[in-house]
Amino acid sequence: KVLQEYFDVMIYNDIIERYKVKDVSLLKIFTLVAFLGFIKSNYEVLLTSLGKQKLRVKVLWIVLVLYPSLIFVLPNSLRIFKYAYASLFTALFMLVIYIIYSEIELIKYK
Questions:
Q1: How far apart are CA 73 and CA 59, in angstroms?
Q2: Are 33 and 84 in contact (CB under 8 A)?
Q3: Rounded distance between C-alpha atoms, residue 100 and residue 26, angstroms
Q4: In three state form, how does the secondary structure of 17-81 look?
């Protein structure tokens, strides 16, 4: 709860007031996507250092199919939110795959 309040204040003060953003929920989704991307990049470095670059390439190919598929499947009534949700889902998908595979590889080294 404290983290959520900090996030709301940070977003509100830094971005919404400065740039007079009207759609806060969309901004929160894209901020979450950026945050997940930051976490994901740490796992990408870990996988690269473990010599698992092929896994990253395979996941990227899956995402190259997944993202446009989600755009096609999600209803047009969502308008711009369908792109935000597709981005969020693909970022989450990549992060989960990277975390699971990294943990499996780290267990092998123990």
A1: 20
A2: yes
A3: 29
A4: HHHCCCCHHHHHHHHHHHHHHHHHHHHHHHHHHCCCHHHHHHHHHHHHHHHHHHHHHCCHHHCHH
Angle between helices 24-49 and 53-73 (to 10 degrees): 160
Q: Report pTM.
A: 0.79
- 85 touches 70 (CB < 8 A): yes
Separation between Cα atoms, residue 82 and residue 87, nearest integer Å: 8
Tens place of pLDDT per residue across the chain (110 aa): 777 777 777 766 677 777 777 777 888 888 889 889 999 999 999 999 988 999 999 999 999 999 999 999 999 998 889 999 999 999 999 999 999 999 998 888 76
Q: Give the Cα separation of 22 and 26 in Å (integer).
A: 9
